[in-house]
């Protein structure tokens, strides 16, 4: 059946809505009744609540006496109403099959439509906001905000900023350095603006300013080696302290912050001392370093798939070099979970999906939800994917494109980014799609059946409530 936009008055129909139901001007008031609310913070549900949405904000939360004449009424019938999920580390543009080699053969007329597919998949997996951590500018964000395609709110970082032979230097060994004349832009990723190879204080400042000029809400730097890349050994420290400091100062001039990809304890310490506010991955962090992060309100943003035994099956990590890196990373991260549990730094949820679309993308999103909850508990996972991630998004200060209210919480004045799910996710993470299987998971359709309603910015994108 050809998809169509269905008016709010038809919410009683058991149907998946393939696009926004009504504009914000038309959809002035929606009243959710009979809801058990997870507010993004509490360790238990608040039962029997009514939640009133006006425009794109939550206007009131009360008991059965809360009602508004003329509002469209949606009966939760005892289901859980909760904030839309936030993924703090996505790569919507890193979507070509075949890993780094596949990206080298990509063109924007293929990468662009695939990024739309990725955005659509995240939204219908319950993610109403994402922090896009490298690979593209603000074009997709603007397209989603204009209502032309279905997707989450996007906080773009712009191109990766990497030193020569860093984690974002996506050349192979035969390709010339784009910063050494007379051979500019030899890497396809550099030509497309997916990554900037920038060395020295001046080069880093120029790259950061370029990203900010293109609508970046925060900056992503590569500050250490990685598993999936080719030219950077895992142990390497990347960017000198003065280069990191320069990036932090330039971002601060725009009232925003720097996030860094880094695994090693020494690399994390260097980045935190330079003033970065978000450590991506951080699997080798010592308790001392995690305590420093906690003291300085620096977020730890780690994808638990990065320490999963499933990871050796990843199609993008099958070369001998990648497998050797993975084995070393597995050994060096063996104390990660216990260290984090002991120190309890601020954490935000991430999936870090690259080079996977459709069923592979869905299975990784579902597994990440489950595995994070398995390691740290359902409540910790839910907080990391709602209120805590919302706090991280707000670190973007005046560069934040969404300033009407907080994200990741159910409270008066917050954005009306809302999920209604069957069951209680504090007890059963599968109701938001969590699945203990990854590569051997049964393929699922785009829609998570237990996720009955998805609202973003006061607009309903899916509703299967009777």
**Tell me about the biggest sheet?**
8 strands, mixed
Return the structural class: alpha/beta
Determine Rg (CA atoms, Å). Answer: 22 Å
How would you sum up the global shape? globular
Annotation, overall tally of beta strands: 18
Number of H- or I-type helical stretches:
13
N-to-C CA distance: 20 Å
Low-confidence stretches: 1-26
Query: Which whole number gives the mean pLDDT?
Result: 89
Measured by DSSP, the beta-strand proportion falls in 15-25%
Helix content, binned percent: 25-40%
Description:
The chain is of the alpha/beta class and about 475 residues long. It has 13 helices and 18 strands. The strands form four sheets. Strands 1, 2, 3, 4, 5, 16, 17 and 18 form an eight-stranded mixed sheet that branches. Strands 11-12-13-14-15 form a five-stranded parallel sheet, with helices on both faces. A three-stranded parallel sheet has the order 6-7-8. Mean pLDDT is about 90; it is low at about 1-25.
Summarize the structure.
Helix content is 29%, strand content 19%. By secondary structure, it is an alpha/beta fold. Helix 6 crosses helix 7 (265-274) and helix 8 runs parallel beside helix 10 (336-343).
Search tags:
19% strand, alpha/beta, 18 strands, 466 residues, disordered N terminus, eight-stranded mixed β-sheet, globular, five-stranded parallel β-sheet
